[in-house]
Design goal:
There is one protein chain. Strand 3, helix 3 (71-82) and strand 4 (87-89) form a beta-alpha-beta unit. The chain has eight helices and eight strands. It is of the alpha/beta class and 230 residues long. Helices cover 43% and strands 17% of the residues.
């Protein structure tokens, strides 16, 4: 069983896109059994889902529908699978070059030119106090920088530093003529709503919908499946 575990959101479009991501994985892998779980905001919780699968003696791979490894991955999801002898957790979706390719497409959709050294990009993530999460976001920024002439920096919605607005201000002070916030978020919701007030010239759409993300999800599932105890 693939347990697609997202953060959770009250935004109806965000809820629909996350649900459609799991459906897209099933379209790519006919016969795959999937169920949803969440770490915050909406039910069912990952703890309850994994407990139910354990009671039914059903092996499970929990794939975090998260873009970096932070508290939710290393505490919430890890704790849920630890209670089930035949459950394992996959690694989060990011970093991954395919996510960077989606980011690049979203930037193009916002009118940003990767060849323009005067256009700065602020990669905006939700944020986490876990340094592993910050490192994952910085690694993604490094991958994006390889194909971008202007500077690529990071900003966060909460917990980590710098805040997105401060990163935008810093980019302007460093000489950027245009600053674009690249929303490193799967779907619309609270954090994406806040990006409009960060002072950038434009803000990209979230990563979903995109079939490449479903392919990343399946790769994470396949890699973890080999570690499920028999």
């Amino acid at each position: 069983m693939l347990v697609a575990c997202a953060h959770g959101t009250r935004n109806p479009t965000g809820r629909r896109l996350i649900a459609e991501l799991a459906l897209a994985a099933r379209d790519l892998r006919p016969g795959l059994r999937t169920t949803a779980a969440f770490v915050d905001v909406q039910p069912p919780t990952v703890v309850d889902v994994v407990r139910g699968l354990a009671d039914a003696a059903t092996p499970a791979v929990v794939v975090p529908l998260l873009l970096s490894g932070g508290y939710h991955v290393h505490v919430d999801i890890a704790g849920a699978v630890a209670a089930h002898p035949r459950a394992v957790a996959a690694r989060p979706l990011g970093p991954d070059p395919r996510l960077v390719a989606v980011l690049t497409d979203r930037l193009a959709g916002a009118g940003a030119d990767p060849r323009d050294p005067r256009t700065a990009i602020v990669l905006a993530a939700a944020g986490s106090s876990d340094p592993r999460s910050v490192r994952d976001v910085e690694d993604t920024a490094g991958l994006l920088q390889r194909s971008w002439a202007g500077p690529v920096t990071t900003g966060y919605g909460s917990a980590a530093q710098p805040p997105v607005a401060d990163a935008v201000t810093a980019a302007r002070r460093a000489g950027a003529e245009r600053v674009v916030v690249a929303a490193y978020l799967l779907a619309p919701g609270h954090f994406h709503d806040k990006l409009r007030g960060a002072g950038a010239d434009s803000v990209t759409a979230p990563l979903l919908p995109d079939e490449r993300i479903a392919a990343v999800l399946l790769d994470r599932f396949d890699a973890a499946l080999t570690t499920v105890p028999a």
